[in-house]
């Protein structure tokens, strides 16, 4: 489980970074989304990987059998904020496309 | 403790939040109403910030810890008001009022929701200064950044959209790094409360501490991106120079927010104990590189906007370097420099707009190019009678000269006092017996050289603008545009006159910061307000 999780995070991060460094805006935004998924998974992993354990305190439940609720709360906030800012970036990207007529991050096509 | 003043701690967050919400319901066509609401909220904010500053610097022992939702410290989110955050709150409010007044002349009308975004930016900045919790710091950073994206794009145009896109992309990546850093720290230390974290650091075993330091390092990169340290700063000059003048004026505080976060966290987490001095080397050499890069940029800038953008970098670099040395007296000089340089850069950004108004956008570039190649020196027949200096140009010229004096650190304005305080403290380390090290000498040289570069650059720009302007048109300037600039410059004058008390305040602030136990104790000993039911019934049976 830990291995799969870490490989998934690693693959998504590397794809994300490669895409962010591309000169086309669409690739940049896909890269940012991939990176944010990787980061969200990472936050989950930080709380310890546990399966089938609720983060809810109950009568008679040993504390060790609980999942850590804090990373889950952090992930929730991070997802909301990440979505909002990515959506805003998308709007700017469309504006840039409309103003410059192409989708290069510097607003110009490379010299051929 | 008076409960009324206690609740004042959260007011700098609530006032802009409520104002921005109210502003959304006012129709976009009723600009005067919107502007008045926004201005009223900002003036109230300034008043509250001043009140908090007075309470904090007063003699009474004010516990500035505010438990949000009445949860005890390590579990709930806390707001902490201490000398540093009170100072930064006051500085923010003092920048916000002139910037807002300036925007009311023209800029607030060129797009929708300017005032709402402005208030949200203030909320984010104030929240980030007040919070005592790492994740909450992230949330306030994002509030501030989201508002700043909107403000940067305010007014639209290809140049702004391009600069804005780079700015947003860089800051989105920074936000992801912020999350990685915060979660690494949580994973190793098990807490996000800054005071609790500082208390726990000595108990973290070495192999986990390494991870914690890695998390802190990643977090540091985020703050350094905001502050604009050398390899991370290429987005800053284009973004700041593309922003409209009042927006750039208030943006001057945002790079200082990065500095604030670094100052707060290094003093708190790495001030003493096993991880003491973590990251100081990076700050020191990074600061040096930033000053060098900024100085070259200042000298090379042809447009005034870029000159101001690179001045931000020089100011950041100086402050980072001061943090890297981590010496009490130098740091308090640095704090004065922070206040002085923020005020002067903000004034300069707004002044640029006035000076360049009526000029062709490319006039400056053209002027410097002509200077370099000298091929346009056609001897025009000079008019015999001297040109009468119009009053507008005289006022603008005086303000420009004041900005030049402030940025280069010449007497008599506060830029000089701040630089003198830093330099004398650096020299002072030698007077005790230890001669200043090579690093210190390098710093002294860099600080002085960056001032000289600013002077050369500003003088060149000033001569081109005021003495031998190519077009010679007098810009049309409204009173509510020049008054904010003069207000900011008068503040720096006030800072010079009151340099003694100001230095004392900075000294005591730095002294408190260098004793993390004060902060930790204040947060951990903050008492909850007793439960209403429990206190009403007089019984202890209330379940929690």
UniProtKB/TrEMBL annotation, chain A:
The chain crosses the membrane at residues 6-21, 28-53, 73-95. The keyword Transmembrane applies. PANTHER family: ANTIPORTER SUBUNIT MNHC2-RELATED. Its main location: membrane. InterPro entries: CPA3_antiporter_subunitC, NUOK/Mnh_C1-like. It is a multi-pass membrane protein. Belongs to the CPA3 antiporters (TC 2.A.63) subunit C family. Keywords: Cell membrane, Membrane, Plasmid, Transmembrane, Transmembrane helix. This is Na+/H+ antiporter subunit C.
Automatic annotation (TrEMBL), chain B:
It is found in: Cell membrane; Membrane. It is a multi-pass membrane protein. It comes from the Bacteria. Residues 132-432 form the NADH:quinone oxidoreductase/Mrp antiporter transmembrane domain. Keywords: Cell membrane, Membrane, Plasmid, Transmembrane, Transmembrane helix. Coiled coil: none annotated. Belongs to the CPA3 antiporters (TC 2.A.63) subunit D family. This is Monovalent cation/H+ antiporter subunit D. It comes from Rhizobium grahamii. The lineage of its organism: Bacteria, Pseudomonadati, Pseudomonadota, Alphaproteobacteria, Hyphomicrobiales.
């Amino acid at each position: 489980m830990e291995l799969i999780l870490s490989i998934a995070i690693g693959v998504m991060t590397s794809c994300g970074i490669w895409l962010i460094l591309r000169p086309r805006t669409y690739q940049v935004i896909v890269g940012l989304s991939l990176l944010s998924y990787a980061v969200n998974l990472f936050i989950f992993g930080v709380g310890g990987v546990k399966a089938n354990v609720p983060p809810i305190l109950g009568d008679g439940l040993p504390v060790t059998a609980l999942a850590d609720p804090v990373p889950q709360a952090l992930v929730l906030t991070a997802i909301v904020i990440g979505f909002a800012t990515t959506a805003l970036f998308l709007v700017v990207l469309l504006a840039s496309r409309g103003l410059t007529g192409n989708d290069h991050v510097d607003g110009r096509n490379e010299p051929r | 403790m008076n409960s009324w003043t206690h609740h004042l701690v959260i007011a700098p967050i609530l006032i802009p939040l409520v104002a921005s919400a109210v502003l959304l319901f006012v129709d976009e066509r009723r600009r005067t109403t919107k502007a008045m609401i926004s201005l009223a909220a900002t003036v109230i904010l300034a008043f509250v910030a001043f009140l908090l500053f007075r309470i904090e610097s007063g003699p009474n022992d004010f516990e500035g810890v505010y438990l949000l939702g009445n949860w005890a410290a390590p579990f709930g989110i806390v707001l902490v008001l201490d000398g540093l955050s009170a100072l930064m709150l006051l500085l923010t409010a003092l920048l916000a009022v002139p910037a807002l007044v300036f925007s009311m002349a023209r800029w607030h009308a060129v797009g929708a929701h300017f005032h709402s975004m402005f208030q949200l930016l203030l909320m984010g900045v104030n929240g980030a200064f007040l919070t005592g919790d790492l994740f909450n710091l992230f949330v306030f950073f994002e509030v501030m950044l989201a508002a700043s994206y909107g403000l940067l794009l305010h007014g639209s145009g290809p140049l702004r959209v391009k600069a804005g896109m780079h700015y947003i992309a860089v800051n989105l990546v920074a936000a992801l790094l912020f999350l990685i850093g915060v979660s690494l720290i949580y994973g190793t230390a098990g807490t996000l409360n800054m005071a609790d974290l500082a208390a726990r650091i000595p108990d973290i075993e070495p192999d986990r501490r390494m991870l914690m330091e890695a998390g802190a390092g990643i977090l540091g990169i985020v703050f350094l991106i905001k502050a604009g340290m050398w390899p991370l700063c290429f987005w800053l000059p284009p973004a700041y120079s593309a922003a409209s003048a009042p927006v750039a004026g208030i943006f001057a505080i945002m790079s200082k927010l990065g500095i604030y976060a670094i100052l707060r966290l290094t003093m708190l987490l790495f001030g003493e104990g096993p991880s003491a001095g973590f990251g100081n080397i990076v700050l020191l050499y990074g600061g040096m590189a930033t000053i060098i890069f900024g100085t070259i940029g200042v000298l090379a800038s042809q447009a005034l906007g870029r000159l101001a953008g690179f001045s931000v970098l020089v100011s950041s670099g100086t402050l980072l370097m001061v943090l890297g040395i981590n010496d009490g007296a130098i740091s308090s000089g640095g704090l004065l420099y922070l206040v002085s340089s923020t005020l002067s850069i903000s004034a300069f950004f707004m002044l640029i707009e006035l000076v360049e108004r009526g000029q062709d956008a490319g006039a400056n570039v053209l002027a410097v190019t002509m200077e370099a190649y000298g091929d346009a020196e056609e001897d025009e027949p000079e008019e015999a009678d001297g040109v009468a200096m119009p009053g507008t140009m005289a006022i603008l010229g005086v303000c420009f000269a004041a900005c030049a004096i402030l940025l280069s650190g010449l007497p008599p304005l506060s830029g000089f006092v701040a630089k003198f305080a830093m330099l004398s403290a650096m020299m002072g380390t030698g007077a005790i017996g230890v001669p200043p090290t090579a690093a210190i000498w390098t710093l002294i040289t860099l600080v002085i050289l960056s001032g000289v570069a600013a002077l050369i650059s500003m003088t060149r720009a000033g001569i081109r603008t005021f003495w031998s302007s190519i077009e010679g048109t007098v810009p049309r300037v409204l009173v509510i545009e020049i008054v904010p600039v003069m207000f900011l410059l008068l503040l720096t004058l006030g800072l010079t006159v009151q340099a003694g008390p100001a230095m004392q305040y900075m000294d005591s602030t730095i002294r408190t910061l260098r004793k993390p136990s004060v902060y930790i104790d204040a947060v951990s000993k903050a008492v909850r307000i007793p439960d209403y039911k429990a206190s009403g019934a007089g019984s202890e049976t209330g379940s929690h």
